[in-house]
Protein 1
Amino acid sequence: MNLKKRILLLVVALIFIASLCVNSKQPPLPVPTEVEGWARNVSRNVRDYISETAQAHIMPKNFCEEKGLLLVFIHSKFDKFDARRAIRETWGQKRDNVTFYFLLGEDKNSHHEVQLKLRDESQRFNDIVQERFVDSYNNLTLKSITMLKLFHLHCSDSYKYLLKIDDDVYLNIASALKELTNRSITTNVLLGHIYNVTNAIRNPASKWFVPYELYPDEKYPPYLCGAAYIMSADVAVKLYRVALETPIFYIEDVYITGMCAKKANVTLENSGGFNCYYAKKYVCLYKQYFVYHYFEPRDIKKAHELVAGKKCPLTGSWQEWFYSLLY
Ligand SMILES: *[C@@H]1O[C@H](CO)[C@@H](O)[C@H](O)[C@H]1NC(C)=O
Ligand SMILES: *[C@@H]1O[C@H](CO)[C@@H](O)[C@H](O)[C@H]1NC(C)=O
Ligand SMILES: *[C@@H]1O[C@H](CO)[C@@H](O)[C@H](O)[C@H]1NC(C)=O
Ligand SMILES: *[C@@H]1O[C@H](CO)[C@@H](O)[C@H](O)[C@H]1NC(C)=O
Ligand SMILES: *[C@@H]1O[C@H](CO)[C@@H](O)[C@H](O)[C@H]1NC(C)=O
Ligand SMILES: *[C@@H]1O[C@H](CO)[C@@H](O)[C@H](O)[C@H]1NC(C)=O
């Protein structure tokens, strides 16, 4: 055989083997073009989900009857008992001028024991609001609109500010309060970590995948990172009114602090204390922040020991370097 023939044979063999490989593979899975729970035929009209008259499953006694500077709504999930315990024992401890409530939805599979445990927890701490929507990641926008509804109906005369925060965040609450009490203008405030330019993600594999039918533009309006943001009472009421007329978009922070805020003409304010992406859990290295995200309950406790116990070693000391390796 001459060289040309050999090469030809080799190529044919390779193509044959390659075709075997391709045929033996499963046909590729169909690429999802819809977001789970928000198919094209599902209503996105807020009024179909939010009722001002329906009774919540669980409501604290004397809800919002105290007055104060700050109302904190911690967005939790029905089964996150450990996260709530960690927060109550740390940054969510009772203090003057601040009230804490946990906001949850309902268990889609309605496990009876979980609900009993939840009622127990509520009797013990009187800080649980369980509203009437399925508690899922893709329903977080409904959770936030529910928060605005409750604030509008019961709390807007009692508190100057509303803080939305997730249950996997450590908050240095003393610093946050300092920032609030030091402000001269206390209305028209919407404060957090700004994302100025973000594209909607069109890759169906992403957690934040958005089909064109749900959001046709390429870019989102500027918005605040959803882990924690603060608004003044007037802004909460404005955002609620606008949300009632704005089709639900399942990415919570983009919807509330981006789309609704823009429609309500509320200007976003960036605060250096709110960070969003954050990998290292050793808070002493990042004293300038008061919001730390992606924390497990044990990270929250550890952070609190260091921050509230004033146990951070001096900046630049060998102890700081040493502990930063440990945590
Ligand atoms: C929407 O369509 C799916 C099939 O694509 C169907 O299973 C579902 O029941 C429909 N939902 C509503 C609310 O009509
Ligand atoms: C509560 O907040 C108000 C401002 O709204 C402030 O004047 C007052 O000193 C605060 N009280 C306490 C006990 O911190
Ligand atoms: C959101 O909650 C509504 C009301 O309970 C429910 O019908 C819907 O299935 C939930 N959607 C998702 C994505 O969980
Ligand atoms: C309070 O505000 C003033 C000016 O607005 C600023 O210089 C000062 O650093 C602030 N203090 C705190 C504790 O944030
Ligand atoms: C985002 O916009 C705000 C307000 O316009 C501005 O203060 C901030 O510097 C901008 N941030 C970035 C990263 O461009
Ligand atoms: C926002 O401002 C625009 C232009 O000034 C105005 O037409 C619109 O009514 C305002 N929206 C709200 C909710 O105040």
Note: The radius of gyration is 24 Å.
Protein 2
Amino acid sequence: MNLPLLDSGLLDTDRLSAEFQSVPAGRLHAVTKSALPTGSLDQLFRQARTYNEWSSREIDEWTIHGLYELLKWGPTAANSSPARFVWVKSAEGKARLSALAMDANRAKILAAPVTVIIGYDLAFAETMPELFPARGEMLREFYREPTAAADTAQRNSSLQGAYLIIAARALGLDCGPMSGFDNAGVDREFFAGTRIQSNFICSLGYGKPGTPFPRNPRLSFDEAGRWA
Ligand SMILES: Cc1cc2nc3c(=O)[nH]c(=O)nc-3n(C[C@H](O)[C@H](O)[C@H](O)COP(=O)(O)O)c2cc1C
């Protein structure tokens, strides 16, 4: 078998682990990680755009599974992972979802290969014994309190929605996030009989080149923040 990386010693795990042990713990990050190549940073952030028009290329189910397998690793409070996802792909599902969207968003939903509803489960407390075995019972009691549950579910499902966008871009997909829809209506239509509520929706696909409007500016570092 030809394993050039192994042959060259680059994947010599014994040697690497010996080197790591000689490095002070605080410097390990510098040794084990490096910034992504500039092209990857462009794909994830600088050149990534919001798309509302799509090429004819479909997304296969494996790509959607791969997307979830990446985004699920993004951190959430106490590993609570409150987001729940409905991947709307069928014509029937698209019709139900688009009917509940603002007029301007309807065609965007119908045109996309997939539009995912990112919801949050207000009953996520019940999953804490599975997701945080060391303190599952205590966390379940804590998150059964309605205000703690709602705050945590909303905050962390928004984070998980952001992880979804970044993971999609990492896989070469484009995104069209939208909050212009009837949340209560979507909850009735897609989450009836559960305690799941919709947060936002996000179309996924391969964007049609040249269709986004000119990029809008962002706040500068100093406008957006300050040192303290
Ligand atoms: C949570 C969220 C909600 C949004 N809602 C809508 C929407 O309802 N309709 C729409 O056309 N665009 C919507 N957008 C798209 C934003 O306007 C767009 O992402 C933003 O202007 C940045 O564009 P850019 O990524 O091309 O720079 C939404 C984006 C986010 C993240």
Note: Residues 1-14 have pLDDT under 50 and may be disordered.
